[in-house]
Amino acid sequence: MSIVDQRELPGRLVERELRSLDDVCDAIRTLAVRGAPAIGIAGAMGLVSSLAAETSCARDDFLRRVDSHAETICGTRPTAVNLGWALDRVRRCAHAAGGHAGAILDAMHREATAILEEDRAMCRRIGEHGVSLLREDARVLTHCNTGALATGGIGTALAAIYVAAERGLRVAVFVDETRPLLQGSRLTAWELTQARIPATVLVDSAAASLMRAREVDLCIVGADRIATNGDVANKVGTYALAVAARHHNIPFYVAAPTSSFDPRAETGADIRVEQRSPDELRSFAGVPTAPAGVAVHNPAFDVTPAELITAIVSDRGVHRPPYDFRLRA
User: Fold this and answer.
1) How many domains does the chain have?
2) Which residues are catalytic?
């Protein structure tokens, strides 16, 4: 399996081959591949790749390895529901498949490929639904990266912007830097520049002032997990953005595929928030930015309550409050 190593952008466009279980886990854990849908696809494809050398096993031994590898990969990023969803789907396919280990692996590969193709189609539908929220010369504020790098298709929150550009609708995008790993300035700004869509990078803490200056018409962000009541887990900083948007009476939209809806999470309180390494805050590019050994609070995500969200855009349409995603999930 080949991925674009997102840690190298925007300086270099580097592809990386993932063959072993350690390769797959390292790529997901270290954010070489990131974005909820992309993590799910990478997990599914990576599970297949990690078992390619195991087809001489007896059927039962092979299925035990499928389960073990899936569990290991799933533990790398616990918040994004897409990873567990995709792995479970491929794992169930393996157990349902007939024949020897090679035939099972072939069936798993077809299932993982189907997940990729479905995600591409879902991204397109999200974009087509989301573009209805935009008007000519709209000024959009976004957070983290929700484009092609984060998915198998054209993105989730950025999908609406890409569809708008295809249709000749002028849109300008304000891009939160997205600390501490700068997915906004490194990835989203790079994507938009490649697509010739006007983009302006700002430090996260400047967003509220930009809203007060009436420079923002709407916010669109992605989601790593959505509870059935509409609470949303997304990259840390999303909650603060939603609070600022509500204070300034600016619409706040979330865009995500239905695979990000978690039927087991009734509210945001049921969503486990991943804590990242303290070193991500103690240093940057190898340069110390905090005293060695200082205590660090570094959650990868935060949870935005449903009451702060104007609408949630999925591949099934634009959903407005009150939210109840029990059947949709």
Assistant:
1) 2
2) 224
